[in-house]
Design goal:
Layout (H helix, E strand, L loop, with lengths): L17 H9 L3 H14 L1 H14 L18 H16 L1 H8 L7 H27 L1
Helix pairs in contact: 1-2, 2-3, 4-6, 5-6
Length: about 140
């Protein structure tokens, strides 16, 4: 009996094939995993992005070594910059900043401004991360 191994999918992929590979491994429809991932991304954005990126770097493609095994940071500058902007933006959102600035901004303007800055950083970070993830 052949041994079952976890690998990123080459056929059923949207970004880097992580959820397609998990679907193949666990014999679950990858679309169900994608829906679950989007829900978790909305609820817990930072842990989901960190987990997805870790999986993209640690789970290999079929017949290849993991990206982390021969990681050259100069090759992945855009991905790293996008990740840092995403993390910084998530700290500016009202979810995190609301409790920090609620006393300093009784009228809520600073909370609103932090939310706008956070949303812009998150969007720019996501836009920067998507192309490199599709190439990994």
């Amino acid at each position: 009996m052949p041994r079952k191994t976890l690998h990123r999918s080459d056929e059923d992929r949207i970004l880097s094939g992580v959820l397609g590979g998990l679907g193949e491994y666990f014999k679950v429809d990858p679309n169900i995993l994608r829906i679950l991932a989007v829900v978790l991304l909305i609820v817990l954005p930072i842990p989901m992005v960190v987990l997805y990126l870790a999986a993209a770097f640690l789970i290999p493609r079929k017949g290849k070594r993991p990206v982390a095994a021969n990681l050259d940071l100069s090759e992945h500058k855009q991905l790293i910059i996008g990740f840092v902007l995403f993390i910084l933006g998530s700290f500016f959102t009202p979810y995190f900043a609301g409790t920090l600035f609620s006393l300093a901004a009784p009228y809520g303007f600073f909370i609103f401004l932090n939310g706008i800055i956070g949303a812009i950083l998150i969007i720019v970070g996501a836009v920067l991360m998507i192309p490199p993830l599709r190439k990994i």
